[in-house]
Structure formats: C-alpha cells, structure tokens
Amino acid sequence: MADAKILPLAVVGLGFRVGDISVLDGATFDIAPGSRNIVLGPNGAGKSVMLRLLHGLLTPTSGRVGWSNPDALAVRRAQAMVFQRPVMLRRSARENVEFALHVAGVRNVRNAADLALDRAGLMRLADRPARLCSGGEQQRIALARAWALQPEVLFLDEPTASLDPAATNAIEEAVNAMHRAGTTIIMTTHDLGQARRLADRVLFLNHGRLVEDAPAVSFFAQPTSPDAAAFIRGELLW
Q1: Sign of the C-alpha dihedral, residues 129, 132, 137, 138?
Q2: Cβ proximity of 95 and 89 under 8 Å
Q3: 3-state helix vs strand vs coil in the chain, percent to 5
Q4: Which partner from 56, 215, 216, 219 sits 20 to 30 angstroms from 193, CA to CA?
Q5: In the β-sheet with 201-206, what is the strand arrangement from edge to edge?
Q6: pLDDT tens, residue by residue, 158-212
Q7: Residues with Cβ < 8 Å from 217, sequence gap 6 or more?
Q8: Rg, Å, the chain Cα set
Q9: How far is CA 36 from CA 27, 180, 198, 203, in A?
C-alpha cells in the first residue's frame, strides 16, 4: 500500500451536469479509512458517475473531491478501479497483472503478479490468454490486477452485475480479503443482497441525489427516506 495516505476523503457539494441534465446533484459525504462503502440505488441513479468523479475519470461541474493528501500523484497511485466490464489485454492473465505493475513502476513484477493471482484463486489460469477466460474469471483477473498495486482505496463499479452466483461469491470473497488487508472499499451495486453482505455503510442515490447516508445496519432496518424504504421493499422508483 502506498506510504502517502490519501484518506479520509471529504466530498462537498459534488455535482455533474451534461448540458441541461443534472446527473449528480450536490452530494456531500466523507469516506473514512478502512470502511466498506456501498453506493446503492436503481439503474440511472448516478452511481457510476459518482465513482468516476471520485476516481478522477470525470471532472466535477460543481463541488469538490477533497483527498487528505494534496499531492495529485500520490492520490493517483493510492487508488485503483475495477469496472463492470473489465478490459483485458491480448496477453495471459499473468501478463495482464504484470502490465499494471510495470506502469506503476513496481520491481519484481513476476512475484507480485503471482502473489495477486494466488490471492484471487487464479494461479491455475496464470498462463491462459485473459480474453479466453470466462466473464467471472476476467473480473477476478481485474481484481488481481488492482490487488497487486496494494491500493489504499479500491473503487468497484457493479463488478458482479452480469455474473452467476458462484462467480459473484468469488468476487465478494476477494473484495472482503482486500478489505481485511487494509483497503478501503467504495463499490456501486443495485443488488440489495450484495449490499447487505458487504456494506459497513450505505450511500443511497436516486435521481442523482444522495438521498440517504447511513450505517448499513440502520439503513436496512429503518431507512429514513421514503425512496430508500421503497427500494428495500423492491418497488420501482420513478
């Protein structure tokens, strides 16, 4: 993990507009070190945009993302992101992980790559072309690629959205293992069961607004907003 810590994170009035459309509007919250934060909400709520704003892939049109470390290079090096549909290079699973390590300037990439693959339960696939692996295996390769960098913060954008239960379980186990090793998790999902299994804290979005921010136990037991209560009951939100 990077020596220069970047947490806690203070997000203030975060917004993103595309023309006249407000995709995210005035989100304010903090992220503490060592937490598992699940960004929950229906499709189109603004979850993926929020992650991209926090990760630096998009520039806010209002508000700010305030990492505790002002060094932009340290911020980039201390975080990683896994997307819903990971991009696999035309290389083996091991070489996909090694490439990320090379870019980060890590030495002894072979050992670091093999350790990450082993942690993700993928050593048997180390020499297989990554693009020939199943969707669940590719997602675990992407996780191993992120894990090898030992990020302080890991962003995951609906990493199990198109996976079967066995693959979903493997991803969740890997995410929890990274958390136990000290990585702070910020993950989007619309899956209530997954949020219950993984979350310490829930950020609930609807129509681009942060409707509720609460510990997971209290969010699921007694949501304070009508939108969150309806979502938990399985009702469609319009």
Answers
A1: positive
A2: yes
A3: 40, 25, 35
A4: 56
A5: 79-82, 153-157, 184-189, 36-40, 201-206, 209-215
A6: 999 888 999 899 999 999 999 999 999 999 998 999 999 999 999 999 999 999 9
A7: none
A8: 18
A9: 18, 10, 7, 11
